[in-house]
UniProtKB/TrEMBL annotation:
SUPFAM superfamilies: S-adenosyl-L-methionine-dependent methyltransferases (SSF53335), Winged helix' DNA-binding domain (SSF46785)
Pfam families: HTH_20, Methyltransf_23
Ranges annotated as spanning the membrane: none
Alphabetical list of SMART domains matching this protein: HTH_ARSR (SM00418)
InterPro entries linked to this entry: ArsR-like_HTH, HTH_ArsR_DNA-bd_dom, SAM-dependent_MTases_sf, WH-like_DNA-bd_sf, WH_DNA-bd_sf
Organism: Marinobacter profundi
Organismal lineage: Bacteria, Pseudomonadati, Pseudomonadota, Gammaproteobacteria, Pseudomonadales
GO molecular function, one term: DNA-binding transcription factor activity
Domain HTH arsR-type: 9-104
Official protein name in the record: ArsR family transcriptional regulator
Amino acid sequence: MTNMTTHASETSPADTLAPIFKASGDPLRLEILRVLRRDTFGVLELSQLFDMRQSGMSHHLKVMHKAGLLEPQREGNAIFYRRPLHLESDKLTDRTIRQIFETVDQLPLPLHLEQKIEAIRNQRADQSQAFFARYAEQFREQQELIAAFELYAEPVAELLRKRSGKHEWHSALEIGPGEGGFLPVLSQLCGNVVALDNSRDMLAKATRTCIEERLNNVDLIEGVTDTLLARGDAFDLVVANMVLHHVPSPADIFLDAAALMNSGGCLVISDLCSHDQDWAKENCGDLWLGFEPEELTAWAADAGLTAGEQLFIGLRNGFQMQVREFWKLASQN
Protein backbone atom coordinates (compact mmCIF):
# COMPACT_ATOMS: atom_id res chain seq x y z
CA MET A 1 0.00 0.00 0.00
CA THR A 2 2.83 2.39 0.88
CA ASN A 3 4.63 1.73 -2.41
CA MET A 4 1.45 2.36 -4.38
CA THR A 5 0.89 5.69 -2.62
CA THR A 6 4.47 6.78 -3.22
CA HIS A 7 4.26 5.84 -6.89
CA ALA A 8 1.00 7.76 -7.34
CA SER A 9 2.43 10.91 -5.78
CA GLU A 10 5.46 11.01 -8.06
CA THR A 11 5.43 13.61 -10.82
CA SER A 12 6.38 12.34 -14.25
CA PRO A 13 8.00 14.48 -16.98
CA ALA A 14 4.68 14.37 -18.83
CA ASP A 15 2.97 15.95 -15.80
CA THR A 16 5.37 18.93 -15.90
CA LEU A 17 4.90 19.43 -19.64
CA ALA A 18 1.12 19.14 -19.70
CA PRO A 19 0.40 22.68 -18.34
CA ILE A 20 2.74 24.19 -20.94
CA PHE A 21 1.07 22.48 -23.87
CA LYS A 22 -2.39 23.15 -22.43
CA ALA A 23 -1.62 26.85 -21.98
CA SER A 24 -0.19 27.14 -25.49
CA GLY A 25 -2.88 25.02 -27.16
CA ASP A 26 -4.99 27.99 -28.18
CA PRO A 27 -4.60 30.08 -31.38
CA LEU A 28 -5.08 33.37 -29.52
CA ARG A 29 -2.39 32.53 -26.97
CA LEU A 30 0.01 31.61 -29.75
CA GLU A 31 -0.65 35.01 -31.32
CA ILE A 32 0.01 36.67 -27.95
CA LEU A 33 3.36 34.88 -27.78
CA ARG A 34 4.07 36.02 -31.31
CA VAL A 35 3.50 39.72 -30.64
CA LEU A 36 5.61 39.50 -27.48
CA ARG A 37 8.67 38.28 -29.37
CA ARG A 38 10.46 41.61 -28.86
CA ASP A 39 7.80 43.92 -27.45
CA THR A 40 6.40 44.32 -23.97
CA PHE A 41 2.70 45.13 -23.74
CA GLY A 42 0.27 45.91 -20.96
CA VAL A 43 -3.09 44.20 -20.49
CA LEU A 44 -4.99 47.12 -22.00
CA GLU A 45 -2.68 47.22 -25.02
CA LEU A 46 -3.06 43.48 -25.59
CA SER A 47 -6.84 43.84 -25.26
CA GLN A 48 -6.67 46.57 -27.88
CA LEU A 49 -4.55 44.42 -30.18
CA PHE A 50 -6.91 41.45 -30.04
CA ASP A 51 -10.25 43.27 -29.72
CA MET A 52 -11.31 41.62 -26.48
CA ARG A 53 -12.34 42.68 -23.00
CA GLN A 54 -9.68 43.23 -20.40
CA SER A 55 -11.11 40.52 -18.16
CA GLY A 56 -10.82 37.93 -20.92
CA MET A 57 -7.27 38.96 -21.78
CA SER A 58 -6.30 38.88 -18.10
CA HIS A 59 -7.51 35.29 -17.88
CA HIS A 60 -5.38 34.20 -20.84
CA LEU A 61 -2.33 36.00 -19.44
CA LYS A 62 -2.82 34.41 -16.03
CA VAL A 63 -2.90 30.92 -17.53
CA MET A 64 0.18 31.60 -19.67
CA HIS A 65 2.07 33.10 -16.75
CA LYS A 66 1.27 30.12 -14.52
CA ALA A 67 2.62 27.78 -17.21
CA GLY A 68 5.85 29.76 -17.50
CA LEU A 69 5.18 31.11 -20.99
CA LEU A 70 5.02 34.74 -19.85
CA GLU A 71 6.25 36.82 -16.95
CA PRO A 72 4.87 40.10 -15.60
CA GLN A 73 6.97 43.23 -15.62
CA ARG A 74 5.92 46.07 -13.32
CA GLU A 75 6.26 49.56 -14.80
CA GLY A 76 5.27 51.81 -11.94
CA ASN A 77 1.57 51.22 -11.29
CA ALA A 78 1.07 49.25 -14.51
CA ILE A 79 1.77 45.60 -15.27
CA PHE A 80 3.25 44.66 -18.63
CA TYR A 81 3.93 41.18 -19.95
CA ARG A 82 6.95 39.76 -21.74
CA ARG A 83 8.47 36.42 -22.52
CA PRO A 84 10.61 35.04 -19.67
CA LEU A 85 14.19 36.25 -19.59
CA HIS A 86 15.68 33.24 -17.82
CA LEU A 87 15.26 29.90 -19.54
CA GLU A 88 17.72 27.20 -18.49
CA SER A 89 19.16 25.19 -21.37
CA ASP A 90 19.18 21.85 -19.53
CA LYS A 91 15.73 22.04 -17.96
CA LEU A 92 13.02 20.08 -19.79
CA THR A 93 10.25 22.62 -19.26
CA ASP A 94 12.45 25.53 -20.34
CA ARG A 95 13.63 23.67 -23.43
CA THR A 96 10.00 23.00 -24.31
CA ILE A 97 9.03 26.65 -23.86
CA ARG A 98 11.96 27.76 -25.99
CA GLN A 99 10.92 25.33 -28.74
CA ILE A 100 7.40 26.75 -28.67
CA PHE A 101 8.82 30.27 -29.05
CA GLU A 102 11.03 29.21 -31.95
CA THR A 103 8.07 27.62 -33.69
CA VAL A 104 5.63 30.50 -33.36
CA ASP A 105 8.33 32.97 -34.43
CA GLN A 106 8.35 31.31 -37.83
CA LEU A 107 4.75 32.41 -38.36
CA PRO A 108 4.30 35.83 -39.98
CA LEU A 109 2.10 38.27 -38.11
CA PRO A 110 -1.21 39.10 -39.83
CA LEU A 111 -1.19 42.55 -41.41
CA HIS A 112 -3.96 43.85 -39.14
CA LEU A 113 -1.88 42.95 -36.06
CA GLU A 114 1.21 44.64 -37.47
CA GLN A 115 -0.85 47.77 -38.07
CA LYS A 116 -2.24 47.76 -34.54
CA ILE A 117 1.22 47.26 -33.04
CA GLU A 118 2.48 50.18 -35.12
CA ALA A 119 -0.41 52.30 -33.82
CA ILE A 120 0.55 51.52 -30.21
CA ARG A 121 4.18 52.37 -30.92
CA ASN A 122 3.08 55.65 -32.48
CA GLN A 123 1.02 56.45 -29.38
CA ARG A 124 4.10 55.88 -27.23
CA ALA A 125 6.27 57.96 -29.58
CA ASP A 126 3.77 60.82 -29.52
CA GLN A 127 3.82 60.74 -25.73
CA SER A 128 7.61 60.97 -25.68
CA GLN A 129 7.77 63.71 -28.32
CA ALA A 130 5.16 65.76 -26.49
CA PHE A 131 7.26 65.63 -23.34
CA PHE A 132 10.44 66.82 -25.04
CA ALA A 133 8.56 69.57 -26.88
CA ARG A 134 7.16 70.75 -23.56
CA TYR A 135 10.40 70.57 -21.58
CA ALA A 136 13.11 71.17 -24.22
CA GLU A 137 14.43 74.20 -22.34
CA GLN A 138 14.60 72.27 -19.07
CA PHE A 139 16.02 69.09 -20.61
CA ARG A 140 19.23 69.02 -18.59
CA GLU A 141 17.44 69.75 -15.32
CA GLN A 142 14.86 67.04 -15.99
CA GLN A 143 17.48 64.43 -16.86
CA GLU A 144 19.65 65.25 -13.87
CA LEU A 145 16.78 64.34 -11.57
CA ILE A 146 18.07 60.83 -12.27
CA ALA A 147 21.66 61.13 -13.47
CA ALA A 148 24.05 63.97 -14.26
CA PHE A 149 25.25 63.81 -17.87
CA GLU A 150 28.88 63.30 -16.85
CA LEU A 151 28.07 60.17 -14.82
CA TYR A 152 27.32 58.15 -17.93
CA ALA A 153 29.03 60.22 -20.66
CA GLU A 154 32.51 59.86 -19.20
CA PRO A 155 32.46 56.04 -18.84
CA VAL A 156 31.08 55.70 -22.38
CA ALA A 157 33.75 58.07 -23.73
CA GLU A 158 36.46 56.16 -21.87
CA LEU A 159 35.23 52.86 -23.32
CA LEU A 160 35.18 54.26 -26.86
CA ARG A 161 38.65 55.75 -26.58
CA LYS A 162 39.97 52.45 -25.32
CA ARG A 163 38.40 50.62 -28.26
CA SER A 164 39.48 53.19 -30.88
CA GLY A 165 43.10 52.08 -30.53
CA LYS A 166 42.21 48.69 -31.98
CA HIS A 167 39.29 49.63 -34.24
CA GLU A 168 39.30 52.21 -36.99
CA TRP A 169 35.98 54.06 -36.89
CA HIS A 170 35.31 56.33 -39.85
CA SER A 171 31.64 57.01 -39.24
CA ALA A 172 29.45 57.19 -36.14
CA LEU A 173 25.74 57.56 -35.41
CA GLU A 174 24.32 58.90 -32.18
CA ILE A 175 20.65 58.07 -31.69
CA GLY A 176 18.91 60.69 -29.56
CA PRO A 177 21.77 63.18 -28.98
CA GLY A 178 19.70 65.41 -26.70
CA GLU A 179 21.52 68.71 -26.28
CA GLY A 180 24.50 67.31 -28.18
CA GLY A 181 26.74 66.97 -25.15
CA PHE A 182 28.33 63.73 -26.40
CA LEU A 183 28.88 64.89 -29.98
CA PRO A 184 32.32 66.43 -29.27
CA VAL A 185 33.57 62.98 -28.20
CA LEU A 186 32.27 61.32 -31.37
CA SER A 187 33.53 64.19 -33.52
CA GLN A 188 37.08 63.58 -32.26
CA LEU A 189 36.90 59.80 -32.73
CA CYS A 190 35.29 59.66 -36.19
CA GLY A 191 35.62 61.58 -39.41
CA ASN A 192 31.87 61.68 -40.03
CA VAL A 193 29.13 61.79 -37.38
CA VAL A 194 25.36 61.70 -37.77
CA ALA A 195 23.10 62.83 -34.92
CA LEU A 196 19.55 61.52 -35.25
CA ASP A 197 16.57 62.75 -33.21
CA ASN A 198 12.82 62.85 -33.77
CA SER A 199 12.47 66.01 -31.65
CA ARG A 200 12.99 69.23 -33.60
CA ASP A 201 13.39 71.14 -30.35
CA MET A 202 16.22 68.89 -29.15
CA LEU A 203 17.93 69.02 -32.55
CA ALA A 204 17.91 72.82 -32.32
CA LYS A 205 19.77 72.59 -29.00
CA ALA A 206 22.22 70.05 -30.47
CA THR A 207 22.81 72.41 -33.41
CA ARG A 208 23.78 75.20 -31.02
CA THR A 209 26.23 72.83 -29.32
CA CYS A 210 27.83 71.99 -32.68
CA ILE A 211 28.19 75.68 -33.50
CA GLU A 212 29.67 76.54 -30.11
CA GLU A 213 32.07 73.56 -30.18
CA ARG A 214 32.88 74.08 -33.89
CA LEU A 215 31.97 70.54 -34.79
CA ASN A 216 32.15 70.70 -38.58
CA ASN A 217 31.88 66.96 -39.21
CA VAL A 218 28.44 66.43 -37.60
CA ASP A 219 25.27 66.06 -39.66
CA LEU A 220 22.07 66.56 -37.68
CA ILE A 221 19.00 64.76 -39.00
CA GLU A 222 15.39 64.91 -37.83
CA GLY A 223 13.79 61.47 -37.97
CA VAL A 224 14.03 57.90 -36.72
CA THR A 225 16.25 54.95 -37.60
CA ASP A 226 13.93 54.08 -40.50
CA THR A 227 14.96 57.43 -42.02
CA LEU A 228 18.60 56.34 -42.22
CA LEU A 229 17.75 52.81 -43.31
CA ALA A 230 15.81 54.24 -46.25
CA ARG A 231 18.86 56.33 -47.19
CA GLY A 232 21.13 53.30 -47.09
CA ASP A 233 23.48 54.78 -44.48
CA ALA A 234 26.08 52.60 -42.74
CA PHE A 235 28.23 53.26 -39.67
CA ASP A 236 31.18 51.77 -37.85
CA LEU A 237 29.90 52.94 -34.47
CA VAL A 238 26.39 53.51 -33.08
CA VAL A 239 25.79 55.13 -29.69
CA ALA A 240 22.56 55.53 -27.72
CA ASN A 241 22.93 57.31 -24.37
CA MET A 242 19.88 57.28 -22.10
CA VAL A 243 17.61 56.71 -25.10
CA LEU A 244 16.07 53.24 -24.77
CA HIS A 245 13.71 54.19 -21.95
CA HIS A 246 12.22 56.90 -24.20
CA VAL A 247 11.54 54.84 -27.34
CA PRO A 248 8.30 52.93 -28.10
CA SER A 249 10.01 49.61 -28.90
CA PRO A 250 13.52 49.35 -27.39
CA ALA A 251 14.21 45.97 -29.00
CA ASP A 252 13.84 47.54 -32.45
CA ILE A 253 16.77 49.85 -31.72
CA PHE A 254 19.01 46.79 -31.68
CA LEU A 255 17.59 45.46 -34.95
CA ASP A 256 17.92 48.83 -36.67
CA ALA A 257 21.39 49.49 -35.26
CA ALA A 258 22.56 46.10 -36.53
CA ALA A 259 21.13 46.87 -39.97
CA LEU A 260 22.89 50.26 -39.98
CA MET A 261 26.27 48.92 -38.85
CA ASN A 262 29.16 47.86 -41.04
CA SER A 263 30.72 44.45 -40.39
CA GLY A 264 32.89 44.67 -37.29
CA GLY A 265 30.86 47.64 -36.05
CA CYS A 266 30.04 48.41 -32.44
CA LEU A 267 26.86 49.46 -30.66
CA VAL A 268 27.31 51.17 -27.28
CA ILE A 269 24.32 51.75 -25.03
CA SER A 270 24.01 53.42 -21.67
CA ASP A 271 20.71 53.24 -19.88
CA LEU A 272 19.03 52.64 -16.56
CA CYS A 273 18.72 49.25 -14.96
CA SER A 274 15.19 48.21 -14.05
CA HIS A 275 13.73 50.27 -11.20
CA ASP A 276 10.37 51.00 -9.57
CA GLN A 277 10.38 54.81 -9.35
CA ASP A 278 7.23 55.69 -11.26
CA TRP A 279 7.74 59.46 -10.88
CA ALA A 280 10.35 59.26 -13.67
CA LYS A 281 7.56 58.79 -16.21
CA GLU A 282 5.90 62.11 -15.44
CA ASN A 283 8.98 64.14 -14.55
CA CYS A 284 11.46 62.80 -17.11
CA GLY A 285 9.25 61.57 -19.94
CA ASP A 286 10.29 57.93 -19.48
CA LEU A 287 8.19 55.30 -21.24
CA TRP A 288 10.01 52.42 -19.48
CA LEU A 289 11.39 52.12 -15.97
CA GLY A 290 14.80 50.82 -17.01
CA PHE A 291 15.77 47.37 -18.24
CA GLU A 292 17.16 44.13 -16.94
CA PRO A 293 20.67 43.50 -18.36
CA GLU A 294 19.38 40.17 -19.66
CA GLU A 295 16.77 42.02 -21.73
CA LEU A 296 19.43 44.00 -23.58
CA THR A 297 21.53 40.87 -24.11
CA ALA A 298 18.52 38.96 -25.51
CA TRP A 299 17.51 41.80 -27.85
CA ALA A 300 21.08 42.12 -29.09
CA ALA A 301 21.37 38.37 -29.71
CA ASP A 302 18.08 38.44 -31.61
CA ALA A 303 19.60 41.17 -33.81
CA GLY A 304 22.71 39.09 -34.44
CA LEU A 305 24.96 41.13 -32.15
CA THR A 306 27.46 39.75 -29.66
CA ALA A 307 27.66 41.21 -26.15
CA GLY A 308 30.98 42.67 -25.03
CA GLU A 309 32.07 44.66 -22.02
CA GLN A 310 29.55 45.83 -19.44
CA LEU A 311 29.81 48.36 -16.65
CA PHE A 312 27.33 49.11 -13.86
CA ILE A 313 27.28 52.50 -12.12
CA GLY A 314 25.38 53.31 -8.93
CA LEU A 315 23.45 56.58 -9.06
CA ARG A 316 21.66 58.67 -6.49
CA ASN A 317 18.04 58.02 -5.52
CA GLY A 318 18.61 54.29 -5.84
CA PHE A 319 19.07 54.22 -9.63
CA GLN A 320 21.70 52.10 -11.35
CA MET A 321 23.16 52.70 -14.80
CA GLN A 322 24.43 50.06 -17.22
CA VAL A 323 26.94 50.74 -20.00
CA ARG A 324 26.96 47.94 -22.59
CA GLU A 325 28.75 47.24 -25.84
CA PHE A 326 27.60 44.91 -28.62
CA TRP A 327 29.49 43.88 -31.73
CA LYS A 328 28.52 42.95 -35.25
CA LEU A 329 30.98 40.24 -36.11
CA ALA A 330 33.13 40.92 -39.16
CA SER A 331 31.85 37.78 -40.89
CA GLN A 332 28.24 39.06 -40.85
CA ASN A 333 26.75 40.79 -43.85
